[in-house]
Amino acid sequence: MNARQLEIFRTIMRDGSVTAAANTLAVSQPSVSKVLHHLEDQLGYKLFERIAGRLVPTMEAHLLYDDADRVFREIEALKTLARTIGERKMGLLRIGASPPFTHSILAQALHLFRRDYPMAKLHLHALPKADISEQLLVGDIDLALTLSTIQAPTVRSEVLAGVPLVVLMREDDPLAGLEAVTPTDLAGQTLISYGGHADVGPALDAAFAAEGQSREVAIQISSSIGAVPLVSGGLGVALVDGLVQWSSFPGLVVRPFAPAVMMHVSISSNSARPVSRYYAPFRRMIADLLQNR
Description:
Elements lengths: L2 H13 L2 H8 L3 H15 L4 E4 L2 E4 L1 H29 L4 E6 L1 H4 L3 H11 L4 E6 L2 H10 L4 E4 L8 E16 L20 E3 L7 H10 L6 E4 L6 H6 L4 E5 L10 E5 L5 E9 L8 H13 L2
């Protein structure tokens, strides 16, 4: 099965007919049929049967499709990488950032970057950390901004700054009258926070245990931004990162969490991929903004 056969098989499976696949691929219907028949001859079995005038995938086609789709997407990622290497001559920086960055320093960093490099193209991928890690590994992005380091064999992560955790609450919450909120203050509260598997989870559990408390997370979130509608809706208080500009959300306030527990702003790249020439200046801009917060 070569790349062209794979593309045509995948498109027929997705679009449901040879005609639709031909339209998607901008080729003639006979060309698609010829490639499909050749592929079936090579495999030694049918991939489609015509039943009541409709093309119906066989069991063998269904068995092949998931892996064929995955391989095709990997080929497309390789093509994208090849194009990107060429585009770098014109200037391209592809950034993967977890949601807290898009609600804090990222806009300022991009403004400074565009000021100094007006001809550069920017691709921004605002995604959860797991998706950012995958895109960094396959080469879809040049750098990653996350609130913890990415652990992978070829990934280089650098901690740029520590960010303390804060308690997010409605402005009418009794806890808003405190200068800082402790684990004891949170006893009996409906807590919205990260799970124990998160990088910061063990440190939080230890902080609670030091005061004889147990951190019981009623609503677990993967990103701090997800806490906003929950806290606004009166579902509880949230123990989240202090990177986000929480003051931009009406009706919500934050108080420091004591004792201080830190999350770590990290910038990562993939040593197995070409490094963008814009990596170093952008890293410097992010570091400067964090230092001046």
